[in-house]
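Morning run. Coffee first, then this:
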Amino acid sequence: MATADDVRRIALSLPEATEKLAWGMPTFRVGGKIFASLGDDDASMGVGCPKEDRAELIAAEPGKFFLREGHDDNFAWLRVRLAALDGEEELSAILADSWRQVAPRKIQDAHPAPGG
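And here it is:
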């Protein structure tokens, strides 16, 4: 089972990632943009996800993926229940994918396959 400590360790291992407290929660950023955040209960995390992909992911694995109604509706963001992850490899893949979605091109070019 993944923990908040695992999220922090893996997120900060990605190229040029930093941690910053925002809205009372730890957020993880690259190039000043948030690519992940821990939930206020440390049992979930938020990650970047294209809006057009969210419904399919939630329908396929509703015990793993969800939206915080009224909060995530207008953002390319998805919530993940840490206890539902299949291990550290899946956690790493999700965080790396979210990192790639927001990392500036210059950083991505310098680090073409983080987490992979």
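The first strand starts at residue 17 and ends at 22. Good start to the day.
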